[in-house]
Amino acid sequence: MVYSAGDIKSLREETGCGVIDCKKALEESNGNRDKAKDLLRKRGLEMALKKSDREAKEGRVESYIHNGSKIGVIVEVNCETDFVGRSEDFIKFSKDIAMHIAAMSPRYIKKEDVPADVLAKEPDVKQYCLLQQPFVKDASKSIQDYLNELIAKIGENIRVGRFVRYKVGE
Q: 29, 74, 88, 134: which has the fewest Cβ within 10 Å?
């Protein structure tokens, strides 16, 4: 079955994936957009896993000060090249992550970062791990999902290096 350029363009705008990837996903799902999105999401996760071993020493430090100047965040987001570090998508992701940290108060980046004594007291630390939290702008996906989508779109390893969150009085 042949899909129109409009179908492919629409799916590409929704997912941020390449034209050929969108076309293949539509073909494999027989035109079902939801299945095509799922296929693209799975491929993005596979791509992220393949790239996770690559070194990410470039990137940017993003800051966010919430209205009223009572909460502030500084976050380091890493990528492989300075070219990607200056790209519009990467900058948007960095700003979204900084805002998310201000709103959701994560304590750790991923579950593996949680100290054993904290894990023993609170076995469900999912709510405190940045990558496992639902994204504040779109609760249908986690921060890890958002990160995987960006990795699939850009084609480089990207990771959140570290962050600090300040709140007046804490």
A: 88
pLDDT digit string (tens) for 81-94?
Answer: 899 999 999 999 99
Within a 10 A sphere around the Cβ of 13, how many other Cβ atoms? 10
pLDDT at 128 over 70: yes
In terms of Cα–Cα distance, which of 55, 74, 162, 169 is closest to 113? 162
Element (H, E) at 4: none
Cα–Cα distances (Å) from 52 to 23, 37, 56, 155, in that order, read 26, 22, 9, 11
167's CB contacts (< 8 A; 6+ apart) are: 70, 71, 72
CB-based burial, 71-88: b 16+ in 10 Å, e otherwise: bbbbbbbbbbeeebbebe
Q: pLDDT-derived band of residue 52, with 50, 70 and 90 as boundaries?
A: low
All structural domains of the chain: 5-51 (1.10.8.10), 58-167 (3.30.479.20)
> Do the Cβ atoms of 54 and 156 come closer than 8 Å?
yes
Q: Which tokens belong to 113?
A: 């970062």
Question: Residue 141: is it exposed, middle or buried by C-beta count within 10 angstroms (0-12/13-18/19+)?
Answer: middle
CA-based radius of gyration for the chain: 18
